[in-house]
Amino acid sequence: MPDQSAPRLRLVPSRRFAHWLAGSGASLAFTTYQAGKLFFLGTGPDGQLSVFERTFARAMGLAHSGDTHWLGSLYQLWRFANFLEPGQDQAGHDGVFVPLEGRTTGDVDIHDIGLDADGEPIFVVTRFNCLARLDRHYSFRPVWTPPFIDRLSGEDRCHLNGLAMREGRPAFASAVARSNLAEAWRDQRQGGGIVMDVESGEIACSGLSMPHSPRWYGGTLWLLNAGTGEFGHVDLASGRFEPVAFCRGFLRGLAMIGDHAVVGTSLPRDNHVFDGLPLQARLDTEGAAPVCGLSVINLKSGDIEHQLQIEGIVDELYDVAALNGFRRPMSLGFRTDEIHNCLKLPAISWVTPGNADGEDGGPATPFQEFTVLPAWPA
After folding, report:
1. Nearest 10 degrees: Cα torsion 177, 178, 183, 184
2. Full-prediction pTM beyond 0.85?
3. Residue range 39-48, pLDDT digits in tens
4. Are 326 and 29 in contact (CB under 8 A)?
5. Domain 8-372 belongs to what topology?
6. What CA dihedral angle connects 286, 287, 290 and 291, to 10 degrees?
7. Which of 20, 90, 134, 269 is 20 to 30 A away from residue 108, measured at CA?
8. Calpha distance 96→28 (Å, rounded)
9. What are the structural domain ranges in the chain?
């Protein structure tokens, strides 16, 4: 019997959200570190939204390529492998992502993850102000630090958070401030944000408010200027940020599908306002309340064409990833014994999940109600 005292979670799609997702040829994954959840969002045979989730403490950065999925968590970096072959089906799911390898990095505040030309992860280690790779002998191997950081130190000095890959190489990184002192970035949230060219070390864009999730797509550097609530792109010739759309929330997580961007929006923490950020002033001017969820933005018009609102226990999202070619994926976790019975060998896959349509529960953040509501009325 469900625990009646457990928190509730509701997902409310706009009228044509599921139709758009079904027609995109992709599904979505997104994370919430606040509730420690990894979500997979797809569509079923009836065209309705299908939601699947698993528990991973402080779920943060995502990266996806082919049959491989990466996730940053509290003190580990996880590699998931799809155990199904093309055309195979497991309880209505066309992908079963199994956490095949977990690398212990320690609690170093992993943020964005990129994949190089060989599919190996390069990830943002925010606590140590660097980009890093995995290493067989060490917790991680630093490969780049901003030029203004004078030494490797376990102090979050600039809040390095975002990574954009280009042709399999780290191209741009975002930070909240150009600071070399522990936690000093917190004093520069309004306009101290920067995007750096990783190869040259030069500042590609400045004057930003808590920038996140840079992405190189279609020959353009896209970016979330989170403290203003604006999605846009960087004019690399002038160094200016060009807003494309305003979203009602703190922006984190950006995935591209065709001519659309999928952006994550979060609610404010604790005091229920975005204290000191331009975003709050914009919301006040518009008489609007912030929302948590996903917004689908047309890259050509800047219109927010579809939305998914998330209500209840989940207030904050971190990352969003597109799973091209997957209609309705799922994942295994560690809170039930289904992972005990899931094997993949060179000549055979044996997948027998015992709980194919629900969340894996556990004492960390159980949900009394996990509901996908009907779409908003026309």
Report:
1. -90
2. yes
3. 999 999 999 9
4. no
5. Neuraminidase (2.120.10)
6. -90
7. 269
8. 14
9. 8-372
